[in-house]
Design a protein that fits this description.
The complex is a heterodimer of chains A (about 140) and B (about 525). Chain A has about 140 residues and is an all-alpha fold. Helices cover about 35% and strands about 5% of the residues of chain A. Chain A starts with about 45 loop residues before the first helix and ends with a helix. The chains are: A mainly alpha (about 140), B alpha/beta (about 525).
């Protein structure tokens, strides 16, 4: 494996790929909704699919091996947005931090999505302002 | 160090040769460091553990390189050793996929490798720096033949979606022209006295001379199309040096404009191959990286219990008790007891297990995150990169999500098929790949790669794309320490009777050398403790 020097590609437009009519796969996925540095979607469901579903499952069912990715479906811990926001920003174990890759609006969108889908029905309604406040608060906790 | 010009005693080289002949290579390693050769590694030759108390037992968790190395050394020092391994194979991330292999990712995606006989992809580590002395020494001791891994290739490409109409540019062209033209700018400003330079008049003259030589500049300090610059950047297709009369005389080639090079951002990639970790020559085992794992397994396979999923690690004042169950649900689990434990389970997984460790260790285990990575192996029916484009080994770098295409260093010039590393994806784009089915990943990798090599569509035969976050025994690729500090010391220090090892307990994350050096340090800690306890 390599030691990666991550180049900074500032302001690079996301490429659009030619779409083939008879392509066997979902061509909508081809722009990957991401750059080297950011997720680019704004819709909560789209963000969930691209950033989260690979580990937690398309329906939030989780995955289980030597360790696990916890199920998000019907998960009572998601009742308060603070819990998922904290995990997304700070990570925990196999869950990396997504703090640099998602902005406050995107975190709010994906948290709202998981709080109100996949068998969860919480009145969450977390806003970008809430996320911004929690970002500062968690950073303060780290320092203090 | 001063060298007396008329020294009478044997030269240092003669001395080293004599020591090497008389005492073997490890003594020579010691001798070299004491004689003042800088070796850029803390590895000082095979570990020497004497005085192990009788009847002491060590349980090793994980049969990757770290675990097998620790087991090998502890057993030869006189310890009783057992290894528990989750998989039904040894080697961990030292993993080579070959035709007939099958693997399953979390979420149930199964991929079958259909490569031709002899073809492979190193889906984990894939190259060895020449200064990774521990790994190279183990390869030597365990008879793993190595060959050169080509990292830098001037004839491979740099590619940007938005520069040069999306056409790939030969690395050597971009490199020579970039260096030539920034050197030109510097030389001209020095020449006109516009540079606020601390150099003396004499040094400034030498500097100008050096810039002219280094940048291949003309007498006016200009980098231009000439036979001189063609000697470095190459010749035009019609105009390469030949023989006889027809089309024989070489012609200059036209440099790429600096402004285009700047906008292409190719310069971001121009130091990749010259990082310390990628200095030429690099190496790879003949036949695949996993040959190293096989070599270790030949030594310690009798100690390994496969298909063992660790559930619980208990520590008492006097010993360690590891409860495990059958990983695939078939057969039974058990309990392994020992005096000490070397645990190479990655923290992504260890942090989820019930383990008796200090609160500090538990906190560190949770706080350490792992890099994501997606790697693709694509078998092509024909080695078109060699035949059509004269690219033999090396790496093309692109700003497409696939990030790179690496050409095989083995079997160059063969008429048969070849396997490309078709993608090495990091960051958010790796999560996007992580969310796709293997078929979608493959299609995406092919579509992107075809922008650089249009031959992909005709020549592709079969391929695999692995997402390391979906590997059931890893949940990630390799450790990503932000700032090691005190947390690293906690992770690397024996906690009661358990000590962790692996690439994550090293300053060489993701490199096998880190796994081995960490394992040797863990072995040292266990041995010191055992000797003390008697």
């Amino acid at each position: 494996m390599r030691y990666l020097i991550v180049p900074l590609l500032l302001g690079l437009a996301t490429p659009s790929f030619a779409q083939e009519e008879d392509s066997p796969v979902d061509v909508g996925r081809r722009d990957l909704g991401s750059t080297l540095e950011k997720f680019t979607d704004s819709d909560g469901a789209e963000l969930y699919r691209r950033a989260c579903s690979g580990c937690h499952g398309p329906e939030g069912e989780g995955a289980f091996g030597a360790g696990k990715y916890p199920a998000l479906a019907a998960n009572p811990r998601l009742g308060h947005p603070r819990y998922p926001v904290n995990l997304i920003l700070k990570g925990n174990g196999a869950m990396p931090s997504f703090a640099d890759w998602l902005d406050d609006e995107q975190v709010a969108a994906v948290v709202t999505y998981i709080q109100t889908n996949m068998g969860n029905d919480y009145a969450g309604e977390v806003t970008a302002e809430d996320v911004s406040r929690m970002r500062e608060e968690f950073a303060d906790l780290d320092e203090g | 160090m001063s060298h007396p010009s008329n020294a009478q005693p044997p030269s240092r080289r003669d001395l080293l040769k004599m020591i090497g002949l008389a005492a073997g290579s490890s003594t020579m390693l010691h001798a070299m460091s004491s004689l003042g050769h800088a070796r850029q590694s803390p590895y000082k030759g095979p570990i020497n553990l004497s005085g192990a108390p009788e009847g002491r037992k060590v349980v090793v968790l994980g049969a990757g390189l770290a675990g097998m190395c620790a087991a090998l050394e502890l057993r030869s020092a006189g310890y009783e050793v057992s290894i528990l391994e989750y998989q039904k194979r040894a080697g961990g991330r030292c993993w080579t996929l070959k035709g007939g292999d099958e693997f399953e990712e979390l979420g149930g995606y199964k991929q079958k490798v259909e490569f031709s006989k002899g073809q492979y992809i190193n889906i984990g580590p894939w190259r060895i720096p020449h200064h990774h002395l521990a790994l190279l020494d183990y390869c030597h001791r365990l008879n793993v033949p190595l060959e050169v891994f080509v990292q830098e290739n001037q004839n491979a490409y740099l590619h940007s979606q938005t520069a040069f109409d999306g056409k790939p540019i030969r690395y050597g062209h971009a490199w020579a022209d970039y260096v030539g033209q920034i050197t030109e700018l510097l030389a001209k400003s020095v020449d006109k006295g516009r540079l606020d330079s601390p150099l003396s008049k004499e040094d400034t003259e030498i500097l100008l001379e050096s810039l002219k030589s280094f940048g291949v500049l003309n007498k006016d300090y200009a980098y231009e199309a000439s036979l001189d610059t063609a000697e470095y950047r190459g010749y035009p297709e019609a105009g390469a040096p030949g023989g006889g009369l027809y089309n024989a005389a070489p012609e200059p080639s036209e440099p790429i404009e600096l402004t285009d090079l700047l906008k292409s951002r190719f310069w971001e990639k121009m130091r990749n191959h010259t990082t310390y970790r990628h200095h030429a020559p690099m190496f790879q085992p003949v036949g695949g990286m996993e040959e190293i794992a096989h070599a270790f397994a030949r030594e310690v396979e009798d100690l390994i219990t496969y298909n063992a999923k660790v559930d619980r690690i208990k520590q008492t004042e006097n010993g360690v008790e590891v409860e495990y169950s059958s990983a695939d649900g078939e057969g039974s689990g058990g309990v392994e007891t020992a005096d000490y434990c070397i645990c190479t389970i990655p923290f992504t997984i260890l942090s989820q297990l019930e383990v008796d460790v200090s609160a500090d260790m538990r906190r560190v285990m949770r706080a350490l995150h792992y890099h994501e990575a997606v790697k693709a192996g694509l078998e092509m029916k024909r080695r078109f990169w060699e035949r059509d484009e004269q690219i033999y080994g090396g790496i093309t770098l692109t700003d497409l999500p696939i990030a790179e295409i690496s050409y095989p260093s083995a079997e160059m010039h063969s008429d048969g098929p070849g396997v490309l590393l078709g993608a090495y994806v990091y960051g958010p784009q790796a999560y996007a790949f992580n969310s796709m089915s293997p078929k979608e990943r493959l299609e995406t990798v092919l579509e992107q790669g075809a922008k650089i090599h249009p031959q992909y569509r005709d020549e592709f035969s079969n391929g695999v794309v692995l997402s390391w976050h979906r590997v059931p025994w890893m949940l990630g690729c390799y450790s990503d320490w932000d700032d090691r500090g005190r947390d690293y010391e906690i992770a690397a220090t024996m906690d009661n009777r358990l000590v962790c090892a692996g690439e994550h307990i090293s300053y060489l994350p993701g490199w096998q050398e880190g796994s081995l050096l960490s394992a040797l340090d863990a072995v040292r800690q266990v041995h010191d403790r055992a000797v003390k306890e008697g």
